[in-house]
Every structure is written in C-alpha cells, then in structure tokens.
Amino acid sequence: MNPGFEQENYMGMNNSDYGGGTPVSDVWRPDIGIAVGHLELVPKLVSIPVILKEGKDAAEVSVKYNYLEPQILQKNEELKTFEKLLLLFIRVIISIR
C-alpha cells in the first residue's frame, strides 16, 4: 500500500452488479500482519476499511457499522456490537540443525 490508500470494503451491495465479499480485511508486511473481520452467522452490512494516511507508516483496519438511528446510551447501559475476529500473525524462522 502507498500513503493515501483508502478502501472501504463494504459488505453490502455497492452497485446493481457487484457487492459483498469476504468479511475480512488482512494487512501484512514480511514480518507481521493483522486480519480483522466479522463472525456473525448472518451477514451484516458492515465495512472493514483499510486506510494508510499520508505521513503515516502504519495502516488502520477496523470493522465499521453505520447505525440507522443515533445510539444514545444512558448511565450503565451497554451497546452490543457484532462478533468480530482479530488475527495477528508473526513470521517465525526456525533453524533445525
């Protein structure tokens, strides 16, 4: 990816002839990587955006959902979110002699 890269990765219909996709975004470099996705049994209309801002050396990846109505929480209330996954992988080199 180059600085300024931004991809929304929306899981719904983007146009009448395409949309959806695998509900995971995966970003890596040779030594380490991270994957983020959603694990709901029924597909949800989420985005899994990947962004590399200008002047930054690390990408942002998340699961994003746009509520139809504002969600206002009262004291001691909780907001239940969708089930998500976070996978971190590291390159390990093993030398056997």
Structure characterization notes:
There is one protein chain. By secondary structure, this protein is mostly beta strands. Helix content is 0%, strand content 33%. It is built from no helices and eight strands. The strands form three sheets. It has a three-stranded antiparallel β-sheet, with no helix packed on it. Strands 4-5-8 form a three-stranded antiparallel β-sheet, with no helix packed on it. A two-stranded antiparallel ribbon has the order 2-3. Strand 2 and strand 3 form a beta hairpin. The radius of gyration is 17 Å and the shape is extended.
Mean pLDDT: 88
Proportion of β residues? 25-35%
The overall strand count is: 8
Oligomer: single chain
Helix segment tally? 0
Radius of gyration, in angstroms, nearest whole number: 17 Å
Strand order of the largest sheet: 1-6-7
Low-confidence stretches: none
Report helical residue fraction.
Answer: under 10%
The N- to C-terminal Cα distance equals 37 Å
Shape: extended
Sheet with most strands: 3 strands, antiparallel
Order of SSEs, N→C? Answer: EEEEEEEE
Please state the structural category.
mainly beta
